[in-house]
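Following up on my earlier thread - several people asked me to post the actual chain instead of describing it. Fair enough. Here it is, all 270 residues.
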Amino acid sequence: MISRRLLTGRGSFRTVQALALSLFTMPGVPLPGQAQRPTAGTVLAIGAHAGDMEVAAGALLATQSKAGARVVFLHLTLGEGGNPSLSTEQYGKQKRQEAEAAAKAIRAEVMFGPYKDGELPDDQASRQYVASIIRKVKPAYVITHWKAGIHRDHVAAHAIATDAVLLASLPGAVGDEPPHRGVRMVLFTENWEDKERFSPYVYVDVSGALDDWEKCVTQYEFIRGGISKFPYHEYYKALLRVRGAEGGVGFAECFDIDSWGKKQVYRTLP
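Reply from S.P.:
Thanks for posting it. Predicted structure:
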């Protein structure tokens, strides 16, 4: 794995950047000298609301899609309660259309969960539902929310998704689909609502997919502006630039992982 210290150390990012990209091409722990270009490997992005994964992980997803990977969005709710000027039915219909257009912009697929905005249940049934999706999609990588934040749906989505990865791997745990044990890595997004204890750990150069990311996220009215006073587009684009500056590239998207995974394995000192 990659440490934050290495990622921000002087002169170290070029090597570490290649290792970060190799996380999406190789099983197990990357070793020096094994850097590869990103290649096909299904990525499943599980968000609490339509728009969450696009804005916080969309640049990486666009990068992987351009490299030939299958990318799938799973929106557990539409986020239909987010527009005070429209009914939940009206805004839900709008959000579904926006989500479909956003996925199309980066050549991705999109799936919609059965849950209501603000009422995402943190229970066994929701875990079994997501585990069944994991078995059907068979991702190599899962991306979801960080574990701590101010939005209860985000926190619930984190718990549901991480537990579902395990459930999906256990025989007889859910449904009739065969177990899926192929998830190599689970990544957690950097979101302004989920900053508590988040520590950027994996930096990925997304400079080559910035235009695709912007085309994707601006399908959403709330990101373009006009619904919320929060400047979503400007904030997340600036964040990509800041993380890129930290890493010595144009634009970078950052993720955290579980603390037990934060280790480095080398054959010799780098």
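The domain at 38-260 is CATH 3.40.50.10320 (Rossmann fold). That should answer part of your original question.
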